[in-house]
Amino acid sequence: MTVLDIQRVSKAYNGHQALKDVSIQIPQGSIFGLLGPNGAGKTTLIRIITRIIEQDSGDIFLNGERITTRMVREIGYLPEERGLYKKMKVGEQLLYLAQLRGMTREEATRGIHEWLERLSLTSWIRKKVEDLSKGMAQKVQFIATVLHKPQLLILDEPFSGFDPVNANLIKDEILRLRDQGATIIFSTHRMESVEELCDHIALINKSEKILEGPKIQIKNQFKDGTYMITHQDSLNGSNGFDVLSTSQDEFGRLATMIRDKENKGSNAILKSVMKNTEVFSFVEKVPTINEIFIKSVKEETHA
User: Fold this and answer.
1) Edge-to-edge strands of the sheet including 31-35?
2) Which of the residues 183, 229, 247, 278 could staple to 3 if both were Cys, CB 3.0 to 4.6 A apart?
3) CB proximity list for 99: less than 8 A, separation 6 or greater
């Protein structure tokens, strides 16, 4: 089921085309990576979804209904540019923001205490935001984003400002929210986080969508018949494969990267290699999201 359906959305600013005919479908219960280089149009799209700005053309549907400002209250949005009232105390800040989202004082207070405990911030409930470290303030903003239990979350660079321990803590909370039924749009430049968290991805470049689909499907699409083999004797390109590089592993064994030049498949390539040398390991090289990102953007840039 599609939770958010973006249909042919376009937006221009003073002659600059920020988005051009972008269509994306966000599946229910997924962590959806919205990717692209700086200036590609990701932030513009997020601001249109959250009704901060209006698109010039196209439609956006949330659970089958054309999205309205009223419906945006049901979305949790963590912007890249964080914003908390520095003079307010943490508990007062969270209560105020929760009530703006329609929560009662009682349910908001209960949720605040639960989240502060989860993120090890209980002792800071009466501290002013200006007294918090950057990482602590980021945690407070994350709580403000998820406190009203939104079914759609938009997280723009959610790990910015976190040390590895707290980044991992927030990552676990994102996965827990997904497992509880939330749908999460995750915009980031950290491709290692996309590898770990995302089920689906879309790549925007120069205002247009150039890739979209399940992460595994896209990774398979970009496989090019490359394999890493560790083996005993030297290996020369023949019988359907090219040798790309050879080195030694930590045990002194030869490690060779080869490519299936005739698309024979892994079984045929392995049989061919085993005729020439003893094989210790044979692994297909699956491209990383970072490699796919760079390759796709470069191809579009030079197209």
Assistant:
1) 75-78, 152-156, 183-187, 31-35, 200-205, 208-214
2) 183
3) 105, 108
